[in-house]
Amino acid sequence: MRYLIIGAGAVGGAIGGRLAQAGHEVVLVARGKQYEALRDHGLRLVTPDGPHIHLLPVVAGPEELGELSPDDVLVLAVKTQDSVAALEAWAGRPVAGGGTAAERLPLVCAQNGVESERLALRLFRRVYGMCVWLPATFVEPGVVSAAGAPLTGILHIGRYPSGTDETAHRISADLEKSFFEAPVAPDVMRWKYAKLLGNLANAIEAVSGVITSEEGLALHGRARAEGEAVLAAAGIAFASKEEEKESRGDKIRFEPFDGSERSGGSSWQSLSRGTGTIESDYLNGEMGLLGRLHGVPTPVNDTLQSMADRFARERRPAGSMTIADLVAEADAATR
């Protein structure tokens, strides 16, 4: 199997680099300065077991690959706001022996949130969800750090909307030879909805910095309580905190190998890089959408979505609003 990593940033770079390190065939798909750096210098993946340079094929889009192979696996690792463009670019690509990528190839959504699987299923016949527990950071173009140990990450995988098959087991086997644990889950979306509840903190972190204060933890608790109420009203199941804790165990410890403190997560990184976009519409915004569909108010998540979007749009520095000010915004919305 050849893995085409569509979006070779923090998560995509870590998955692609570890797969390549284990001897699997990998192609990285990137754009802009990341594409140039990967093309010219390779991927530098920095992990607790040392830095690794991977000189891998790199393309800016599917046209450069020509006809795809029936053994190709598409791993979608872009932010959800970039999913539609990526899906449309790859869906119609021809596959050797006939048919298109959308008709014949498996597509794995290795992303936060729960919307990309639904978007993908409009085009692709074989869609897989992946719940990504993987502490990774985009350091600079061409350089990704993955500080998890002893495992780089845990990646639950299963068919979307549910079920398993031989392909899921084959992908799992490859990942488990590559510094990951990859449970095959017939109910993978339960795990993704559980992670979504945790990701409701991403906007807080992006706007006000890594959450260390009681105020920040309490604000996330309020956002999560709204999320759980929304999922209950919608009849959507999610894995419990106890299930997550048992599954994760002590398998992914954060081990900074350069003495640095933990940087922020994916949303914080988007603001820090000044990308102009952020995934809050598909995290806190997912709860707002479901809340409006099912008559459940979500003022805290609405506030966090709005504030994160404003920071991205105006390119404000990550973490530049005090947590007290952010809490005050949320409090005003709940009155």
Describe this structure in words.
The protein is an alpha/beta fold and 335 residues long. It is 44% helix and 19% strand. It contains 14 helices and 14 strands. The protein has helices spanning 10-21, 32-41, 83-91, 101-104, 115-121, 166-176, 188-199, 202-208, 214-234, 241-248, 266-273, 284-294, 299-314, 323-334, and strands spanning 2-6, 25-29, 43-47, 50-54, 58-59, 72-76, 107-110, 127-133, 136-140, 143-146, 148-150, 153-159, 180-181, 252-254. An 8-stranded mixed beta sheet has the order 5-2-1-6-7-8-12-13, with helices on both faces. Helix 9 packs across helix 12. The longest helix has 21 residues, at 214-234. The chain is globular. The model has no long low-confidence stretch (mean pLDDT 95).
